[in-house]
Amino acid sequence: MISRTRNAPPKASILLEALRGLGYTCASAIADIVDNSIAAHAKVITIQFVWAESKSRIEILDDGTGMDDQELEQAMRLGGKDPLTKRAAHDLGRFGMGLKTASLSQCRSLTVASLKSDCSILRWDLDVLASGDGRDWLLLEGASDEAMESVERLNGQESGTLVVWEKLDRIVTDGFTGQHFLELIDVVEQHLAMVFHRYLEDGGIRIRINGKSVAGWDPFLTDHPATQQSPIERLRVKGSQVEVQYFVLPHKDRLDEATCKKAGGPDGWTAQQGFYVYRGRRLLVSGSWLGLGHGLSWTKEEAHRLARVRIDLPNDMDEDWKIDIRKSTARPPVALRARLTSIAEQARRQARLVFAYRGSSTGRTSNQPIAPIWIADHTKSGTRYRISLEHPVIQQMFEEAGAMFPRLKSILRILEETVPVQRIWLDTAESRDAPQSGHLDANPADILAVMEPMFRNMVRLKGYTAEAAKDRLRRTEPFQSFPDLVDSLDASVNF
User: Fold this and answer.
1) Does residue 370 contact residue 364 with C-beta atoms inside 8 Å?
2) 120 near 140, Cβ under 8 Å?
3) Which one-letter DSSP state was computed for residue 161?
């Protein structure tokens, strides 16, 4: 039996007002427009923020292939593209909604002018739609008087597209000033530098904001010699290939001030840890553990702030990864979660070691274990920290203690029982960094004052050769952090 049907089209003004609440920020909305420019093979994308209080506007101009009148009308329709249709590898869109939803999330008037063989101009104006009965989807032809000044920027180009946002009611709100507009420009620049950094770094595109070129922000510090990176791992699922690689960034002690500040990214070191999901070299998700973990999802902790994992997706896996309209969320398929969790665990484990050791040796030299001064005993009732009685410095003290041996052991026990664990934890949480280890900044003479007697003792009393004694010191905390001082012992120690 054929069911009876009714035609129930949405009211244009009401639906468009509702779609404004999808959750775009100004920066993510502009990134969505830049996606269209890249898909149109643009090489130069120019963004202009024009401050004029309530009449302020934002313009995005590219030198891409442009659209004729029919193509522009299709682009201005909501749902003008089938998300299930196979797309070219360089196409960064999917739903056919981004141009409209991203733009109207920030403004009430969207004008698009595109030059191919001729220049075509179409406009959505929410106030015009609301002034009628709200049912008709009325696209306006031509631009407003203010926007026409911007359209003239297409003159002299062979092709290209201009997007103009006017009536910026979601940006220029009560109390919003020119200074806020300048701060917004900085936020947008940081976001675009992150999202499109791979295009910017290889020269695929150039982006300028109010005349200033945007430099790409590499989340992984791939050019720094102290950055650790795993081999690229290729995972196959449903006939498509996903590439995964983790990076452990250097501790800030290994970075100069400018590099350290830049590497923290738009949201800071702790917030930027996690997975970075790319599609077509375009960053979709930045700094998220994607709900992975064992039992409970991992949270962003200071100890793992140096761990970043890159995932590269082909654009035919949007459905599998649940990519949303805003291109800001992703959920890994069940078939990949176990392996992604394992890779992330390796990154987090290594990052924790680098963080804890402040960029010095993370526990091994020449494949031999480092002799630690402190040992952590993990029990059901908690973690207890004790001094290693096998440490060479401690052993030498015991050998030379004589009658003071019992008192010395008592002093070490008092130190163990009074380690200010809670204070250290609190200071770490508040400063968002590992507490400073005194020996790292110690005067070399102070280090040698401790190291030389040990070296003498091993060579003269224990029968070590000079080279064997130095090798032992290279594997002893904290001397493993000072290999040059260890190498100098032949010249500095008098027998």
Assistant:
1) yes
2) no
3) E
Neighbours of 396 (CB within 10 A): 16
8 A C-beta contact, residue 138 and residue 73: no
CA distances from 88 to 40, 41, 118, 236 (A): 11, 12, 25, 20
pLDDT of 136 reads: 80
DSSP-derived 3-state class of residue 195: helix
In whole angstroms, give the CA distance from residue 294 to residue 215.
38
Q: Sign of the CA dihedral 431, 433, 439, 445? A: negative
CA dist 304 and 308 (Å) reads 9
Reference 200, options 34, 28, 424; nearest CA is 34
Q: Specify the fold of 12-213.
A: Heat Shock Protein 90 (3.30.565)
Distance separating alpha carbons of residues 140 and 143, to the nearest angstrom: 8
Residue appearing with tokens 């032949």: 490
Alpha-carbon distances of 111 from 42, 126, 220, 287, 439, rounded to whole Å:
19, 12, 38, 34, 63
Whole-structure pTM value: 0.76
pLDDT digits (tens, 9 = 90+) for 353-382: 888 766 554 444 445 667 788 888 877 777
State yes or no: pLDDT of 494 exceeds 60: no
CA 418 – CA 38 distance, rounded (Å): 61
For residue 340, list its beta bridge partners: none
Residues in the chain: 495
- The band of 90, judged by pLDDT with boundaries at 50, 70 and 90, is very low
Domain with residues 228-356, CATH architecture: 2-Layer Sandwich (3.30)
Is pLDDT above 50 for 447? yes
Q: What is the DSSP code string of 25-36? A: -HHHHHHHHHHH
State the greatest distance between any 2 C-alpha atoms of the chain, in Å, as a whole number. Answer: 106
The domain locations on the chain are 12-213, 228-356, 368-492
